[in-house]
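Per your request, structure below.
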């Protein structure tokens, strides 16, 4: 990437820290809208050279990029010599049908960088991720890593390698998927029973969060602040947009809450929703 020259396309809505990182590196960042099929490839600027997507579970909306849109994206990248960064940040946890193939498995032009993390499958504090990169890019990545910090903790890497080789990580993921599935169902049930008047959950079959769109015009940032006063931590959907129109609503994470605490959290949130909406 050349500071001040390279155009990087990011999903809108998307992950704000990613945008901040590219801006800090001097990229010309373009916010590209997302619809029900994923990133709108026809809205990509022609000069785009880096495209960051979350095709398996769009963040934050939760949609899955369609097969047609995946083909369009790869065609765009190949025709313009662009690279695609495929962020599969929580692909281990799925609750529906078999997922579509990763973009990288469809890549015939060696342009896709598949990025994943163990922060979701194990624990956030492990701070260990990986890149499955095209062969031509590996020497540059190794050099960049060496310049940045030399290496990750070898003890953590060796332990993780043993977990993988002996099948423990796979068993752990299967166990956690059952637990997360229960939390997800409880969250959806409570949203439908307690908050249906104000919030409409967006269908999603993967990951550790659910997005819900507000049925009424509301300041979701103010809503989040009011909820926090009652000990309920949610995130504002509107804060993840760069351009208008903006969908207002809330993001609910269920990775760090016990299933039996979800109902009480939603009851408290209902009080906040009722209070905020009476002010409108």
């Amino acid at each position: 990437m050349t500071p001040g020259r390279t155009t990087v396309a990011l999903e809108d809505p998307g992950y704000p820290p990613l945008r901040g990182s590219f801006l800090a590196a001097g990229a010309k960042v373009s916010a590209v809208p997302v619809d029900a099929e994923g990133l709108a490839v026809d809205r990509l600027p022609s000069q785009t050279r880096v495209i960051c997507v979350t095709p398996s579970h769009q963040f934050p909306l939760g949609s899955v990029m369609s097969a047609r849109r995946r083909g369009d994206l790869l065609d765009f990248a190949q025709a313009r010599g662009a690279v695609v960064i495929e962020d599969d940040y929580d692909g281990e946890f799925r609750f529906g049908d078999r997922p579509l193939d990763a973009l990288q498995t469809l890549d015939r032009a060696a342009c896709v960088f598949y990025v994943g993390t163990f922060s979701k499958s194990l624990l956030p504090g492990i701070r260990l991720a990986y890149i499955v990169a095209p062969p031509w890019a590996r020497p540059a990545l190794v050099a960049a890593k060496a310049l940045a910090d030399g290496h990750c903790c070898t003890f953590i890497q060796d332990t993780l390698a043993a977990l993988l080789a002996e099948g423990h990580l796979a068993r752990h993921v299967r166990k956690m998927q059952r637990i997360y599935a229960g939390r997800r169902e409880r969250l959806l049930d409570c949203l439908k029973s307690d908050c249906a008047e104000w919030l409409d959950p967006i269908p999603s079959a993967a990951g550790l969060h659910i997005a819900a769109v507000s049925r009424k015009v509301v300041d979701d940032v103010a809503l989040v602040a009011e909820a926090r006063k009652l000990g309920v931590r949610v995130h504002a959907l509107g804060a993840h947009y760069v351009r208008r129109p903006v969908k207002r609503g809330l993001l609910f994470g269920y990775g760090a809450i016990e299933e039996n605490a979800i109902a009480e959290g939603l009851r408290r949130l209902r009080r906040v929703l009722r209070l905020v909406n009476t002010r409108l």
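The chain has a mean pLDDT of 92.

Regards,
D.
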